Amino acid sequence: MPAFSIRLAKAEDVPAIVALLRDDFLGKGREDSADLSPYLEAFSKMEEDPNNALYVLDVPEIGVGGTFQLIYMHGLSLGGCTRAEVEAVRVHASLRGQGFGKKMFEWAIAKAKEDGCGLLQLTTNKARKDGQRFYDQLGFEASHVGYKLKL
Q: What is the spatial distance between Cα 117 and Cα 10, in angstroms, rounded to a whole number?
């Protein structure tokens, strides 16, 4: 496994992150890298929100080798438990199958615990069968049914 680090994303990482988001069968139809301004605006809002952080897997040989978003939500259920949610997990095609996804999740789990979260949750598209197997292997339970409403 090549050397790597996990760090907060910077604005200059946004083009590489969008490329990762586009690099799969679902992202090709959803993400548009021709105009990065909406992504940069969203990134700016994320930077301002202390409960929302975008991270990158920094691999010296290729640069941004992966990404994930970690969001903290405070609530009353589960005894006032703070939840962490992982979103937009992607690993560069050249790095898949080498354990980088697992390393990103180990890091995210440790960070969420360190920040006082009692639960880490995620959603994944029903079509992402490989992702579902991966999350099962990490110990996640498919305990809920998720719904989305496009606005």
A: 25
147 to 11, 123, 126, 127, 150: CA distances (angstroms) = 31, 10, 11, 14, 10
- Per-residue pLDDT reduced to its tens digit, 7-59: 999 999 999 999 999 998 788 778 888 899 999 999 999 999 999 999 999 99
Sequence-ordered list of residues with C-beta below 8 angstroms from that of 22, at least 6 positions apart, any chain: 28, 31, 33
In this structure, the chain runs to a length of 151
Q: In the chain, what are the domain boundaries?
A: 5-137
- Is the distance from CB of 57 to CB of 6 less than 8 angstroms? yes
Does the predicted TM-score (pTM) go above 0.85? Answer: yes
Amino acid identity at 121: Q
Question: Is the distance from CB of 101 to CB of 68 less than 8 angstroms?
Answer: no
Q: Give the CATH number of domain 5-137.
A: 3.40.630.30
Q: Report the phi/psi class of residue 51: left, alpha or beta, with left for phi > 0 and alpha for psi in -120 to 50.
A: alpha
For residue 19, CA distances in Å to 24, 92, 121, 134, 144 come to 10, 9, 25, 22, 30
